[in-house]
TrEMBL record:
<protein>
    <submittedName>
        <fullName>Gfo/Idh/MocA family oxidoreductase</fullName>
    </submittedName>
</protein>
<feature type="domain" description="Gfo/Idh/MocA-like oxidoreductase N-terminal">
    <location>
        <begin position="17"/>
        <end position="128"/>
    </location>
</feature>
<dbReference type="InterPro" id="IPR051450">
    <property type="entry name" value="Gfo/Idh/MocA_Oxidoreductases"/>
</dbReference>
<dbReference type="Pfam" id="PF01408">
    <property type="entry name" value="GFO_IDH_MocA"/>
</dbReference>
<dbReference type="InterPro" id="IPR036291">
    <property type="entry name" value="NAD(P)-bd_dom_sf"/>
</dbReference>
<dbReference type="InterPro" id="IPR000683">
    <property type="entry name" value="Gfo/Idh/MocA-like_OxRdtase_N"/>
</dbReference>
<dbReference type="GO" id="GO:0000166">
    <property type="term" value="F:nucleotide binding"/>
</dbReference>
Amino acid sequence: MTYSRPRFAGDKSLHGVGIIGLGLMGQRFAQAAEGHPEIRVVAHYDPYAKSAVGTALATASAKDLICHPDVECVYIASPPATHLDLINQAAKAGKAIFCEKPLCTDVADAHAAVGAVEAAGVAAAVNYPHATASAALELQRIVQSGELGPNVAARLTLRFAEWPRRWQAQAGDWLRSPTEGGFVREVISHFLYLAGRLFGPGKLVERSIQWGPATEEILHCKLDFNGVELVIDGAVTGDIEDHNSLEVRGELAAATLFDWYQLHYGQTQIGEGSAPTSQLDELGLMLDGHDHRLASFEEACSVVQLVEAIVLRQTS
């Protein structure tokens, strides 16, 4: 897609970004953008936030932020239920969009979000850090090279001491809401996205799920990604430190991505704490109209379809 907009008026070498939602993800983005050679936070909006973001303008509403002339790209870091409306507003205003995952928590809404950015012709991506993290990119290279051998299969294991996680205590009630929250939407979605990048389109084959007071507590399910089986074993146990591990195994070798951004493969181990800088680098490429690695709205929509199939509550 060819994409070009006037850059931030304060510095023509920078792309001006407006953040909607100053929770953990919004704050992380703002911190990562400090000193970045291409990205500058120029405005922010959060009706509940008490702190400012550097010298960025605190707008009175999301609409004011979206319409601000210095905002070239809108970073939507608010709860999932707000995403579609904000996407529609930003797309109609001709602004580029960087949206937190999940794209939406309703399949029809996710398709509508894809349609909105396509109709407006704006650049848009979803914040799945495994799109750019070096460990995930190396895992993708290993899988696609055939080094693991034939009959590749994958297993994802996750454990949580509690849900929401303790460090999410200030995030609001939506993380424990049956319509927006739960560890499938919040955590497993990352790995479903990655599995799509590694293997191809996915579909749910079977699942067993036990519900807590509001969201899932124990999950066992099996998915098929273009002929590659992915087994997921997830639980909120209360007696173990948080852990996630994705093992991809073939007849010749195995590679394991663990604790988000650590990769073990043979004698090689790649590790990094997070991937915010690489995400911003790729966002800069997107805003310059270049090819980039960020997750597309179409990919994120496919993840929504899988996630919502997994957490669908059966009614009798």
